[in-house]
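Example 9 (inverse folding). The structure is encoded as follows.
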């Protein structure tokens, strides 16, 4: 029996953000499909080159209704990547996955004559108006309870209390925990190899940085319960004591 191939890079899990358009059917569905056909005739490539999410919020759909709608869209070469507004128990094999938590964006203008929709223009800053900067840090004054998931992909996450077992923090940047870290901490989730994880009391179920991860069993007992600093060194997570 041979050992693992150390020449291959380790498996990485990374977060990635994609811009998707949302299709929201309006009853009666037969009429909505006719309107969709008219749109495709005006702009044939508009719906075939984009990531599309199907939003059925508020529609009285059972599984067969949803299957029929997905089949009708497939006939029109419209590929649905996910379904929003319906519980996962209503879906099954053959359906796109259920999605939740999408952030609203501006409506997309449908082009005429098959032209691609132009990207929204970003306003140029002027002397009298400074562009608003995106918030880089999320500070939580309360502990993160078991079952909670905190996701902040725009920067660092700082927890002034503890992170309970069964909870999860996902940050685009670094994670700082001023209490005990007992849940899962995933830093650098959008590809930041310089992200760090700092905890005053280190008892995690799992830590990950830039897609590389270690479970509690991988970490071992040496630094368990201590104040630690975790970072990447090449393709390995290095955990050192802060004391």
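The amino acid assigned to each position is listed next.
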């Amino acid at each position: 029996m041979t050992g693992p191939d150390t020449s291959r890079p380790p498996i990485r899990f990374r977060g990635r953000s994609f811009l998707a358009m949302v299709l929201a059917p309006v009853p009666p569905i037969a009429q909505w499909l006719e309107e969709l056909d008219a749109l495709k005739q005006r702009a044939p490539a508009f719906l075939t080159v984009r990531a599309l999410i199907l939003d059925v919020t508020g529609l009285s759909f059972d599984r067969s209704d949803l299957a029929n709608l997905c089949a009708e869209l497939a006939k029109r070469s419209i590929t649905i990547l996910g379904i929003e507004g319906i519980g996962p128990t209503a879906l099954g094999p053959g359906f796109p996955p259920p999605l939740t938590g999408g952030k609203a964006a501006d409506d997309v203008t449908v082009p005429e004559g098959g032209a691609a929709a132009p990207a929204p223009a970003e306003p140029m800053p002027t002397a009298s108006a400074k562009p608003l900067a995106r918030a880089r840090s999320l500070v939580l004054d309360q502990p993160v309870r078991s079952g909670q998931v905190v996701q902040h992909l725009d920067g660092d996450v700082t927890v002034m209390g503890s992170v309970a077992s069964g909870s999860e923090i996902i940050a685009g940047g670094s994670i700082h925990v001023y209490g005990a870290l007992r849940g899962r901490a995933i830093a650098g989730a959008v590809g930041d190899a310089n992200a760090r994880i700092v905890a005053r009391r280190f008892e995690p179920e799992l830590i990950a940085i830039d897609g590389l991860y270690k479970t509690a069993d991988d970490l071992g007992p040496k630094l368990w319960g201590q104040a630690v600093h975790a970072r990447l060194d090449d393709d390995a997570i290095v955990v050192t004591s802060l004391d």
